[in-house]
Design goal:
Distance between the termini: 71 Å
Low-confidence stretches: none
Strand order of the largest sheet: 2-6-7-10-1-11-12-13-14
Number of strands: 16
Number of helices: 16
Radius of gyration: 30 Å
Strand content: 15-25%
Mean pLDDT: 91
Largest sheet: 9 strands, mixed
Helix content: 25-40%
């Protein structure tokens, strides 16, 4: 039996208006090489100037993960040579990162949690982007110099499932803070996965393999599972030392397998040395205090929902997993929806209808509309089943008025005692034999009478009132 050791290095593009060391705009999908200047092109004599907003966002993240935010941090030059790195080196933090020794808690379906350590989070500049076309490659340097926060975990994860849960929690925290759009498709949130194995009970760390530039939770899960199996098979076949070596691998999403890309460098290979063109970063007291003013984080929000709204822990975890979902839920509460019912209708009914990549952000049904459905059910204006019919209609007819839909579909419940009693008397008169059986002790027939009354009302009678009035009639 083997134990899996996983550590993650996550690169988060910070959503500043300009790059980390120059005034070029940060952008996505603009014309290639249209946002460049002597600084981000690495031309001789160009000098970097640090973007203060990038520093603030890094500090906010540090406070969110309960880490040490160093009052002094230092930039270094990390030397390596790729076509999308115009200077031939990357300005990064190595010896003294701005954030160090933090953690977050990952959530499991049974309500338990696990602490995952975060070694460090440091600021650096992003590289450009290569596009490969046939036998030649093109380089777009619009992205070069975009501020990155690299977040390095401890090797605390023991399965692909734990790794993905960690990434989702980290993604959520970044989105709650508002420091990045964390768009994985656009590369704003991407990760390098470090994987190794060891025999159960062994505390030694064996050769780790890095899987580079992953930007999909699903593919990260698949890549880890494949790599773990590859390493286990090599160990069992007695060829571990020949087949598993420190290297960088890529994940082939079509074949579902990792393949070798290049040998993995150690820190000495990068020849780090202090960046001569940048002074150490010294945080003043005002910046330190300002960075402590962060929004309510997912764990705190979840605890508040359970305590104040009385909803289930599981529902609170689901709702707080995405900042947009939490905002949707809180808007429902502000509209007067019952918190428990709002949680149920959001996590089950609405979520169950969001297909084909649709999210609460792009949902055709707004928080106000869903809240109104919940309120109409609570007021007994419509039944729960009718509420689902209204929701289905709204998905097909975006922007329709909830009350008008209820009227149009004839879903309003009959709650008038007189009207319901008339239906009850009619049903009892038509089933005198069963009434006698019920009064003779066959109480299971009560459900039959309820069904007949609801059928007679074409589903419009208030079930609660039907039960109450029917019981009174049968026992009179």
């Amino acid at each position: 039996m083997f134990e899996v050791i996983i550590g993650l290095e996550v690169h988060v593009q910070l959503n500043t208006k300009t790059k980390i060391f120059c005034n070029c705009a940060t952008s996505f999908a603009d014309h290639q090489n249209s946002h460049t200047c002597p600084v981000c092109l690495g031309l001789p004599g160009a000098l970097p100037v640090l973007n203060k907003e990038a520093v603030k966002k890094a500090m906010m993240f540090g406070n969110a993960i309960e880490a040490t935010v160093h009052k002094k941090s230092v930039f270094n030059r990390k030397n390596y040579f790729y076509p999308d790195l115009p200077k031939g080196y990357q300005i990064s933090q190595f010896e003294i990162p701005i954030v160090e020794n933090g953690h977050l808690m990952i959530d499991f379906d049974d309500g338990s949690q696990k602490r995952i350590g975060i070694t460090r989070a440091h600021l650096e500049e992003d590289a450009g982007k290569n596009s490969h076309e046939g036998d030649h490659s093109l380089v777009d340097l619009n992205r070069a110099g975009t501020p990155l926060l690299e977040i390095v975990s401890e090797p605390d994860m023991r399965s692909a499932d734990e790794a993905v849960r960690y990434l989702k929690k980290l993604h959520s925290i970044v989105r709650y803070l508002g420091i990045s759009d964390a768009n994985m498709q656009e590369g704003s949130f991407r990760c390098d996965v470090n994987v190794s194995i060891r025999p159960k009970g062994d505390d030694k760390l064996y050769t780790r393999v890095e899987i580079k530039n992953m930007n999909s939770f699903r593919f990260i899960h698949q890549a880890i599972d494949y790599e773990v199996q590859r390493q286990i098979e090599a160990w069992e076949d007695g060829v571990y030392d020949e087949e598993v070596w420190q290297e960088t691998r890529l994940f082939d999403t079509v074949k579902g397998e990792t393949r070798s890309m290049r040998g993995k460098e150690d820190s000495a290979d990068y020849r780090y040395f202090p960046e001569p063109d940048l002074l150490p970063v010294i945080l003043d007291d005002e910046m330190i205090e300002e960075a402590k003013n962060i929004p309510e984080m997912p764990d705190a929000k979840r605890a508040r929902y359970v305590k104040d709204f009385g909803i289930r822990e599981y529902d609170a975890v689901v709702i707080t997993s995405e900042v947009e979902m939490a905002r949707f839920y809180e808007e429902m509460i502000e509209e007067g929806a019952n918190p428990k019912e709002a949680a149920k209708w959001l996590t089950i009914e609405l979520q169950g209808r969001l297909k084909g990549g649709m999210t609460v952000e792009t949902s055709p049904v707004s928080a106000k509309q869903l809240a109104l459905i919940v309120k109409r059910i609570e007021e007994s204006t419509i039944s729960g089943k009718a509420g689902k019919d209204v929701l289905d209609y709204l998905f097909e007819n975006q922007g329709a008025d909830v009350d008008e839909v209820i009227e149009k579909l004839g879903l309003k419940q009959v709650s008038d005692d007189g009207a319901i009693l008339a239906l009850i008397d009619e049903v009892l008169a038509n089933n005198q034999d069963k009434v006698e059986e019920y009064k003779g002790g066959k109480e299971k027939l009560f459900g039959f009478f309820v069904g007949q009354v609801m059928k007679a009302s074409k589903g419009s009678a208030n079930p609660g009132k039907v039960n109450k009035l029917l019981k009174e009639r049968l026992n009179s």
